[in-house]
Amino acid sequence: MSYETQPTASHYVNGAYLEDSAGAAIPVIYPATGAEIARVHAATPAVVEAALSAAVEAQTLWAEMTGRARGRVLTDAARIMRERNRALSELETWDTGKPLQETLVADATSAADALEYFGGLAASLTGEHIQLGEDWVYTRREPLGVCVGIGAWNYPTQISCWKGAPALACGNAMVFKPSETTPLCALKVAEILTEAGAPAGVFNVVQGMGEVGSLLVTDPRVAKVSLTGSVPTGRKVYAAAAAEMKHVTMELGGKSPLVVFDDADLENAVSGAINGNFYSSGQVCSNGTRVFVQRGIKEAFLARLAERVKSAVIGDPMDEATNFGPMVSQRQMEIVQRYIEKGIAEGARLVAGGKRLEREGFYLEPTVFADVTDGMTIAMEEIFGPVMAVLDFETEDEVIARANDTAFGLSAGVFTRDLSRGHRVIGKLRAGSCFINSYNDAPVEAPFGGVKASGVGRENSKAAIEHYSQLKSVYVRMGDVEAPY
Ligand SMILES: NC(=O)C1=CN([C@@H]2O[C@H](COP(=O)(O)OP(=O)(O)OC[C@H]3O[C@@H](n4cnc5c(N)ncnc54)[C@H](O)[C@@H]3O)[C@@H](O)[C@H]2O)C=CC1
Asked: What NCBIfam families does this protein's entry cite (predicted)?
């Protein structure tokens, strides 16, 4: 990795890089080769303390600045990110193994979108005036205080900004803990925010595993926790936050349905299924991994899908022609391999892929199972890898009931040429982020998040403001105060 892209220390605290090699070493493995490309250290309690006290101090000053001044910092950071998109995308690829073809358009760019969007909103975060006869009430939209962001490994740059941008726009400070699997990118985000004029301590990054996350979540100085991660971790973090009555945003896992009706445009439906299962080697929480295909179109769908999956360009993620890369880690690859074995053992029909590639790195083939039934493990559990389960269905009512028969509720998609049906079915699917004749679009203008076990709260859009601010109401009496005695 070039000097230019490599962060210079493990943590970023109070406006500068910080090292404390007493913390446990965390090797950073390049998924395309398995080689160690960097090493960071988990935060010691001293580093966590430094980050939290810097955030507490910075937050008061940051909140006193005008929204416009805060917003300018965020939009300047967005501009710097766009200027450095290539270097940041390469770093994202080193960190995650995702192909550069993807990272060039979906990571630092999505992070910059969030900084720009919330930077633009910052000046317009106002309260309201409520006239009550002569008296009146006004509301002030106030920050929550110090927020903790905890990230997953699939979108390290994006996640840090989807949390950091709305938090900072509202006048909060943040301590962000990236996933221990992908620790590098958030450090660059912190560096850029400082360069754009964010006061020291407003956005801090500390490394570590769950224990460091847990130290942050339970600290009494922390007002809010936003986690992107798995459902089991979400339950733990939500419970710990609840003990102290802290605010939470939970962006968790899914097992989302993608419903393809007989009348769908075949090529578009196949494209939707590919995007919704194999982008980022399937490591996307909102993926439509239960693809319900109506009987009349099933064979044509499977034939075309198998044909198109064969043309995936699997290889060196730094080669811009590559459009399918490795899994993030050996561990994740092995988890997915076990699911593939279960799929075969439980009687699903392997239509494409299924094997590890014979090359260095953590590469699995894009894998499609047909004849999957609702009770099979691969239809019920989140795999978080390139494994598509295709299930058959006959009727609209049947597919709605089966699609909803899950503990998750992150996303749902419908492909049909009958738009009334599209809206009717989406209206009945219990999921937070939905698509009609498309899949996995996540523009910053749209709320993103799940229902049921998939999460609490929403990221992006104006909705995120509600999760990073609170209203104070002030009653103002214009006349005398009457009292009974
Ligand atoms: N809904 C969404 O927006 C997204 C959800 N995900 C979900 O994330 C999962 C994959 O990511 P992983 O990093 O493996 O998830 P994970 O749940 O293992 O870890 C997520 C983060 O939580 C931290 N953590 C673990 N235990 C903790 C504790 N007790 N207290 C505080 N922090 C703790 C980890 O260090 C990591 O930074 C998948 O299940 C996926 O569905 C991933 C991306 C987006």
From this structure: BADH (TIGR01804), PRK13252.1 (NF009725)
List beta partners, residue 336: none
Whether 144 and 29 share a structural domain: yes
In the numeric block, the tokens 């089966």 are attached to 402
> Does any ligand 1 atom lie closer than 6 A to the CB of residue 382?
yes
CA of 407 from ligand 1 middle (Å) equals: 17
Backbone angles phi, psi at 444, to 5 degrees: -60, -20
Q: Which amino acid is at 353?
A: G
Q: How deeply is 346 buried, as exposed, middle or buried, from its count of CB atoms within 10 A (0-12, 13-18, 19+)?
A: middle
**CA 311 to CA 124: how far, in whole Å?**
48
| Together in a domain, 135 and 81 | yes
Pocket of ligand 1 contains residue 285 by CB under 6 Å? yes
Domain that holds residue 296: 257-436
The dihedral sign for the CA sequence 139, 143, 144, 149: positive
Interface predicted TM-score (ipTM): 0.93
Whether 261 and 282 share a structural domain: yes
Report the CATH number at residue 171. 3.40.605.10
Contact between 288 and 277 under an 8 Å Cβ cutoff? The reply is yes
pTM over the 0.80 mark? yes
In a domain, 444, yes or no: no
**Residue 275 shares a structural domain with residue 395:** yes
Residue at 226 is within a domain: yes
Domain total for the chain? 2
Catalytic-labelled residue, pool 92, 251, 382, 459: 251
Q: Which of 260, 338, 345 is nearest to 295 (CA)?
A: 260
Q: What is the pLDDT of residues 113-149, one digit of tens each?
A: 999 999 999 999 999 999 999 999 999 999 999 999 9
* Residue 251 known to be catalytic: yes
Asked whether 282 lines ligand 1 (CB < 6 A), one says no
Cα distance between residue 353 and residue 386, in whole Å: 9
**In this structure, is residue 329 part of a structural domain?**
yes
Mark whether 227 and 123 lie in a shared domain: yes
Which ligand 1 atom minimizes the distance to the CA of 177? 37
Mutate to test the pocket of ligand 1, among 147, 158, 230 (most ligand atoms within 8 A of CB): 230
User: With a 6 A CB cut-off, is 236 part of the ligand 1 pocket?
Assistant: yes
* 60-108 pLDDT, tens digit each: 999 999 999 999 999 999 999 999 999 999 999 999 999 999 999 999 9
Q: Does 156 sit in the ligand 1 pocket, CB within 6 Å?
A: no
Q: In this structure, what are the phi and psi dihedrals at residue 461, rounded to the nearest 5 degrees? A: 65, 180
**Long-range contacts: 240-247, Cβ < 8 Å, 24+?**
240/214, 241/217, 243/218, 244/218, 244/220, 246/217, 246/222, 247/144, 247/223, 247/467, 247/470
